[in-house]
Amino acid sequence: MLKLTTLSLAAVLAISTAAHASGEPIEAIAPAKVKDAGLAELGKKLYFDTRLSKSGFISCNSCHNLSLGGTDNLKTSIGHNWNQGPINAPTVLNSSMNLAQFWDGRAKDLQAQAGGPIANPGEMGFTHELAVEVLQSIPGYVTQFKKVFGSEKVTIEEVTKAIAAFEETLVTPNSRFDKWLKGDKKALTANEKAGYTLFKDSGCVSCHNGAAVGGNSYQKMGVVEAYKATSPAEGRVAVTKDEADRFNFKVPTLRNVELTYPYFHDGEAATLTQAVETMGRIQLGKQFTADENAKIVAFLKTLTGDQPNFKLPILPPSSDATPRPKPFEK
């Protein structure tokens, strides 16, 4: 939520495109189109496989739990050896719609993002070389990699490509708000529609727009009033080294936001009510009344769409040659 005068060119263009396409600054989400079913199925297995971590206990799903809105509902995630992460885990749901990945946008796409946690000593605590060694030692994986990629030689590029292909399927269409956008005027209550009007008229759509209701621009956290963060994260400046990008973060998607608490890059807002109050104050210079806040929250809850629903993958068993996990080794 930012005043229009603070918008980047990318955000302005995103609003213009969305409004032109649907008559509203938010567009309905289309169901995922699976490009390669075999690749996505392999990626699903890798997404849930804890053997890609040093401890044998952490998987992609640990921090981006598909039963919890694609996140972990913690202020900051728990990594290898009970390490406290420095930043809140963003939802993986609809992440393919983001202009880049991570809060600071350091990964250009889902494939670039997928390799990060595996080799991060504070997250999965492994290395890409060891991850490949583990997968190469599992006959079931070797067979599936050969079927998908045409070779028995496993590479980290193939691993991350498969995980990204699975994550691209994790979209959440058919929210009540989407049904309203498509013409079902009974899909929202009067209170929820009033909340949407407030959301637009207050300027929240300046940054939270498009199909993902966010994720398509970087904006400064604390425009009207400085935000006192509890996280050491510096925002885009860590990537660009441009001081003008300090505390500029990727605008989070508001899709399924009812499920993805706590909020902000430091997880400091425990509830939607608190998040709306803070955003109104520091981004818009607006003090929402309790009634206004409740109406906006009611609208935000209509953005919850169909959650991923599939049979859990059965992972191939390790072989005698598979390196064993080291859960208590630092």
Describe the structure.
With 330 residues, the chain is mainly alpha-helical. It has 2 domains: 9-30 and 174-303, Cytochrome Bc1 Complex, Chain D, domain 2; 37-168, Cytochrome c-like domain (Cytochrome Bc1 Complex, Chain D, domain 2). 36% of the residues lie in helices and 3% in strands. β1 and β2 (83-84) form a beta hairpin. The two termini are 41 Å apart. 45% of the residues are buried. Mean pLDDT is 94; it is low at 1-20.
Shape summary: globular
Number of domains: 2
Arrangement of strands in the largest sheet: 1-2
Gross CATH architecture of the largest domain: Orthogonal Bundle
Regions with pLDDT < 50 over 5+ consecutive residues? 1-20
For the record, give the distance between the C-alpha atoms at the N and C termini, rounded to a whole number.
41 Å
Helix content: 25-40%
Portion in strands: under 5%
Q: CATH-wise, what's the superfamily of the largest domain? A: Cytochrome c-like domain
CATH names the topology of the largest domain as Cytochrome Bc1 Complex, Chain D, domain 2
Q: What Rg do the Cα atoms give?
A: 21 Å
- CATH C-level label of the largest domain: Mainly Alpha
User: What's the total helix number?
Assistant: 12
Give me the count of strands.
4
- Which structural class fits the helix and strand makeup? mainly alpha
What is the ordering of alpha helices and beta strands? HHHEEHHHHHHEHEHH
- Sketch the major β-sheet: 2 strands, antiparallel
